[in-house]
Specification:
By secondary structure, the protein is mostly beta strands. The chain is built from 3 helices and 58 strands. The chain folds into 6 domains: 127 residues, Immunoglobulin-like (Sandwich); 126 residues, Sandwich (Jelly Rolls), CATH 2.60.120.380; 59 residues, Immunoglobulins (Immunoglobulin-like, Sandwich), CATH 2.60.40; 121 residues, Jelly Rolls (Sandwich); 116 residues, Immunoglobulin-like, CATH 2.60.40.10; 122 residues, Immunoglobulin-like (Sandwich), CATH 2.60.40.
Length: 693
C-alpha cells in the first residue's frame, strides 16, 4: 500500500510540474556562498529560473545582479545526458553577481529568485570569513585541485561516481579543521535516496596513507575532521557521496585550515536578555570563555570570532522572561513556570529531580536536548513515592524542526492518582554521558495541541487575479477556527478563511485590477476556540521540501510575503458569493457551476478548464472557453460509488474546490520527459461544495 502511495506521489509531482511549469523552481547554488566584504559570481540552477529578474535576500547588506546563461539546445543536451542522474528540475541556469557588504555577519541567509510570474523557493547562501576556492572539474587523482593558501572554503559538486580532491601544504603539529556544508545547502532532494547528499570526507598524505576520516559529525550528516598533522607534507582532502551519486545539487563547501571550531559551549541554555558566561571547548580558539546574550526566545545559533575568522554555529536555547531557570542542580524541584538545565555528567549516567504532584492534576514535562545540539537521546521516567515507574517517555516528533529526520527529545505526560512528591529520571538511551549530553527540562500546565504552517512562504498573485496558499495543521485544533490574514493592501479579498476540518486547508487571495506590482509582507494567524474563550496562534511561514519521493518537511522561512505581479490578460470568477456553500444532493448527477471570464481587449486564446483540487467524488470532462465566450457553465460529475460512504452521516461532508483556466504555451522536451508549459494560468477563488442530508 505504501509503495502505491509513493508512486501516486511521484505522478502528482510530475503533473504538478506540468501544471505549474511557469513558476520558478530553484535547485542549487554554486558556489553556495562567498566571503564577507567581497563580490562573488555564482551559478544558480533550476526550472524556469532563466525568467528571473531579481534576487531576494533576507539581509539588506547582500545584493545581486542577475544574468541568464546563454546555452544552445545542443550544449544543453550534451551537458544533460540521458544516462546520468540529471533532473529536468535543474535544466535552466542563471549567473548571479552577488555583493556582500563588510558589515554582514557570517551566517546562512535565504536566497530567492523573483520573476514576472512570482518568487521561487528558498535556498541557503553562506557568508563566510574565508575566500572561495572553486574546483576545476578537469582535476583528477593524479592532478588534483591545488589550494594555494589556507584558510579557504573549497567549493564544488560531485558527479555520478565522482571523487573530488584538493591538495594543500601542511606542517607537523598544525591542528587542521575541515568542516563540510552539504546537506545544509540543499536540505532535501526529492529524487534521491537517502534524500540528501551524504558526504564522506578524508585526508591522506603524499603516500596515500589515511590521516583522518569522517562520514558525519555526531548526529549531523555533514562530516567534520579535526586532526593534528603528523609531518610536513602535501596532503589531499577527498570528498564523495557515500554511495557515489552525483549531480549539480550534490554541492558542498569545505571550510579548511587552522580555523576556529567550537565543539561545545556550556551552559547551552539561558534567558532572553540575560548575559551568560560560557566555557568554550574546541580548537584554534585562543580562549576558553565567552559571553552570550540573545534577544530571541527559543533556538538561537551563535558563533565565535577571533583574528582567524568565525567558527561554526553552535545552538543556544533561551527561555522567555519570567521563567525561573535553575542550572545544574540535581534533586531540584521542577514546578510549573520553572526550568532546569543540566548535563549527564554523573558516573551513574542518570539524573533525578523532584516533582510535586497533585491528585488528578496532569504532569507535563518537556525535554529539550537534541533540538539544541546536544548528543543526548533522552529517556524520561516518572516514579511515584514507592519507587514504581508510572510513566515513561521517549522520542516525540517536533514538526517545527524541519531539518530533523530523527526526533530524540521526549515529552512526558501523566495524571497522578494521589498527592505526593514524585521523582523524574533522565538518562541517555545508549548510556552516553558527559557535558555535551546536556538538556533542559520544562514543566507545563499544558502544551499547544497543534502547529500551523503556511506555504509557500512567498505567495504570488497577478494584479486582478487570484492565487492560493495552504495551511497545514499538525495535531488537533478545536473548532470553530478561522484564519486571519493581516497586512493585505486595500482592495484585496480572501476566501475560505473558515477552517472547517482536516489537516490541510486551502485559502485564496484575489487582487484588484489596479493593484500595485510590489512585494508586501503579510502575516497569517489562526483564531480558535479554547475551553473558556478564544485564542490566536501565529501560522509559521515555511517552504515545503520533499525527501526521497515521499516525505515532506516544513523548512521555516524568514518571512511571509505577497508578491503582486503584472496582470494576466484574463481573470476568472464564479457567479455566486464564494462565502456561501454550494449544496448538492446524493441524487444529483452533476453540479452546474457558472464560470465568468473577464478578458482584456484583443485576447482571443482558448482557455482550458480543469478542477484545481482533485477528488474521487467529482470529475470534470474537458472544457474549453472559446475566444468569443465570456462565461461558461461547467458540470462537475458526481461519482456515486465514492459518495456511498458519506451517505447518512450526521454531519454532512464538504469539499473545497476551485477551477483553473490554462492557456497552453510551448512544449519542451527535457530528457525523456515532455512538458506542456503554461502561457497563462488563472483560477477562481475557493468555494465549498456540501452534500445535503
Amino acid at each position: 500500500m505504501k509503495s502505491r502511495r509513493i508512486i501516486l506521489t511521484i505522478l502528482c509531482a510530475i503533473i504538478s510540474t506540468t501544471l505549474y511549469a511557469q513558476k520558478l523552481s530553484l535547485g542549487y547554488l554554486y558556489p553556495a556562498g562567498g566571503q564577507v566584504g567581497t563580490t562573488v559570481v555564482i551559478e544558480a540552477g533550476g526550472l524556469n529560473i532563466n525568467k528571473a529578474t531579481k534576487v531576494l535576500f533576507n539581509h539588506p547588506g547582500i545584493t545581486a545582479d542577475i544574468e541568464p546563461v546563454k546555452e544552445s539546445a545542443a550544449a544543453k543536451r550534451k551537458r544533460r545526458r540521458l544516462n546520468d542522474q540529471s533532473s529536468p528540475q535543474l535544466a535552466d541556469r542563471v549567473k548571479l553577481t552577488i555583493k556582500i557588504d563588510s558589515t554582514v555577519p557570517c551566517a546562512m541567509y535565504d536566497l530567492r529568485l523573483q520573476g514576472p510570474s512570482g518568487v521561487s523557493n528558498m535556498l541557503p547562501f553562506e557568508v563566510a570569513s574565508y575566500p572561495n576556492f572553486v574546483e576545476n572539474k578537469r582535476a583528477s587523482e593524479r592532478n588534483p585541485n591545488i589550494v594555494p593558501s589556507l584558510p579557504a572554503v573549497l567549493c564544488g559538486y560531485v558527479t555520478p561516481g565522482g571523487v573530488d580532491r584538493f591538495r594543500f601544504e601542511g606542517c607537523a603539529g598544525q591542528t587542521i579543521v575541515a568542516t563540510v556544508k552539504a546537506r545544509q545547502l540543499v536540505p532535501y532532494i526529492a529524487d534521491a535516496v537517502p534524500g540528501w547528499f551524504q558526504p564522506v570526507l578524508k585526508i591522506v598524505d603524499s603516500d596515500g596513507r589515511e590521516v583522518a576520516y569522517s562520514d558525519d559529525y555526531h548526529h549531523n550528516v555533514d562530516p567534520v575532521i579535526i586532526t593534528t598533522l603528523p609531518k610536513d607534507d602535501n596532503y589531499t582532502i577527498i570528498i564523495h557521496d557515500a554511495i557515489y551519486r552525483g549531480r549539480e545539487d550534490f554541492n558542498y563547501r569545505i571550510h579548511l585550515g587552522q580555523i576556529p571550531f567550537v565543539t561545545g559551549r556550556y551552559p547551552a541554555y539561558g534567558t532572553v536578555g540575560k548575559s551568560v558566561k560560557q566555557r568554550i571547548t574546541g580548537v584554534n580558539l585562543g580562549t576558553t570563555t565567552a559571553k552570550v546574550k540573545v534577544r530571541k526566545a527559543g533556538y538561537n545559533q551563535i558563533t565565535f570570532t577571533n583574528d582567524i575568522g568565525t567558527s561554526d554555529a553552535v545552538s543556544f536555547y533561551a527561555l522567555p522572561k519570567g521563567v525561573k531557570h535553575i542550572q545544574g542542580k540535581e534533586g531540584a524541584m521542577l514546578n510549573i513556570g520553572t526550568a532546569i538545565s543540566d548535563s549527564l555528567t554523573t558516573t551513574s549516567r542518570i539524573k533525578r529531580y523532584r516533582i510535586s504532584a497533585q491528585m488528578r492534576e496532569p504532569i507535563i514535562v518537556e525535554l529539550i536536548g537534541r533540538r539544541n545540539g546536544s548528543r543526548i537521546d533522552a529517556v524520561m521516567r516518572l516514579r511515584d513515592g514507592y519507587g514504581k515507574v508510572v510513566a515513561k517517555a521517549d522520542d516525540k516528533e517536533d514538526p517545527m524542526q524541519g531539518m530533523m529526520t530523527f526526533h530524540a527529545d521526549p515529552v512526558l505526560k501523566y495524571t497522578p492518582k494521589r498527592t505526593e512528591v514524585m521523582i523524574l529520571e533522565v538518562e541517555d538511551l545508549y548510556q552516553g554521558y558527559g557535558e555535551d549530553y546536556h538538556y533542559l527540562l520544562r514543566r507545563h500546565s499544558q502544551l499547544p495541541s497543534f502547529n500551523a504552517f503556511v506555504s509557500p512562504a512567498n505567495i504570488t498573485v497577478p494584479a486582478g487575479g487570484t492565487s492560493t496558499f495552504r495551511v497545514d495543521i499538525t495535531g488537533k485544533v478545536k473548532r470553530p477556527a478561522n484564519l486571519i490574514v493581516e497586512g493585505l493592501p486595500k482592495g484585496f479579498t480572501t476566501s475560505s478563511l473558515n477552517l472547517l476540518a482536516g489537516r490541510r486547508w486551502n485559502v485564496s487571495i484575489t487582487a484588484p485590477k489596479d493593484a500595485t506590482v510590489e512585494r508586501f509582507p503579510i502575516e497569517v494567524n489562526l483564531e480558535y476556540a479554547t475551553k473558556d474563550s478564544r485564542a490566536t496562534a501565529k501560522v509559521v511561514p515555511v517552504d515545503n521540501m520533499m525527501q526521497a519521493f515521499y516525505y515532506t518537511h516544513y523548512i521555516q522561512a524568514a518571512e511571509l510575503a505577497l508578491d503582486v505581479t503584472q496582470p494576466s490578460p484574463y481573470r476568472m470568477s464564479v457567479d455566486f458569493d464564494v462565502e456561501n456553500e454550494v449544496p448538492f444532493a446524493f441524487s444529483n448527477e452533476h453540479i452546474p457551476i457558472k464560470i465568468i471570464v473577464d478578458k482584456d481587449p484583443g485576447f482571443n486564446d482558448p482557455i482550458e478548464l480543469v478542477m484545481g483540487v482533485k477528488h474521487r467524488v467529482f470529475t470534470l470532462d474537458p472544457v474549453t472557453i472559446l475566444p468569443e465566450e465570456r462565461e461558461k457553465i461547467i458540470y462537475l460529475k458526481l461519482n456515486h460509488t465514492a459518495l456511498e460512504r458519506f451517505k447518512g452521516r450526521k454531519n454532512p461532508p464538504f469539499w473545497q474546490m476551485n477551477i483553473v483556466g490554462t492557456v497552453k504555451g510551448e512544449i519542451t522536451k527535457q530528457g525523456k520527459r515532455t512538458f506542456q508549459n503554461a502561457k497563462y494560468r488563472e483560477m477562481t477563488p475557493y468555494f465549498i461544495l456540501r452534500l445535503m442530508k
